[in-house]
C-alpha cells in the first residue's frame, strides 16, 4: 500500500505508542478503542503515514507491525508518540458533539433560542446547553430535535420560547 504524503484534514488521536514488543519490530499501543484503530490501514505517527501490516489485541493494548519496521530499535523510536487516524464518519442521524457546538438553535416558529454552548449526557440521553437570552437545557432526542443542518450551522427544534 502506498503511503500518503499529506495527512487528511481531520486526524484524531486514538492511542499512544508505549514501546516495542518482541524482536521483530512490533509496536505496543495503548488505546481505548482497539477495534477502531486496528481497522485503520494507515496510522499517522509524528506527522508521517505508517502502513499497518498487521495488528492484534494483547493484554489490554494493541500490538502492531508497521511496514519497514523490522527490529525493536526501529520500533522504540516511536515510543511516546500519538497514533492518529482520520475521524470516521459518524453515520446517518448521528453527530459528533464537537460538530454541534456553536450551531444556532431555532424553534418551529423561527425564534432563535441561542447557540449550542456544550453537550452532555444525563445517562438517559444527550443534552444541549443552549445559550441565548437565557440558558436552556434541551434534550437531544428526535421528539424535540427535528433537523440538524451542519452545513447551514443550524438545529431546528420543537421547543417553546417560554419553556
Under CATH, the topology of the largest domain is which?
Elongation Factor Tu (Ef-tu), domain 3
| First-last Cα distance | 56 Å
- Write out the CATH superfamily name of the largest domain: RimM
Q: What are the segments in which pLDDT stays under 50 over at least 5 consecutive residues? A: none
Strand order of the largest sheet: 1-2-5-4-3-6
The total count of strands amounts to: 12
Give, in order, the helices and strands: EEHEEEHEHEEEEEE
CATH architecture classification of the largest domain: Beta Barrel
Q: Name the shape in a single word.
A: elongated
List the topology elements.
Elements: E1 11-21, E2 26-31, H1 34-39, E3 42-45, E4 48-58, E5 61-66, H2 72-76, E6 82-86, H3 97-100, E7 104-107, E8 112-121, E9 126-131, E10 135-139, E11 145-149, E12 154-157
Parallel strand pairs: 7-12
Antiparallel strand pairs: 1-2, 1-6, 2-5, 3-4, 3-6, 4-5, 7-8, 8-9, 9-10, 11-12
Care to describe what's here?
This protein is mostly beta strands and 163 residues long. It folds into two domains: 11-86, RimM (Elongation Factor Tu (Ef-tu), domain 3, Beta Barrel), CATH 2.40.30.60; 97-157, PRC-barrel domain (SH3 type barrels). The chain is 9% helix and 47% strand. It has helices spanning 34-39, 72-76, 97-100; strands at 11-21, 26-31, 42-45, 48-58, 61-66, 82-86, 104-107, 112-121, 126-131, 135-139, 145-149, 154-157. The chain has a six-stranded antiparallel barrel.
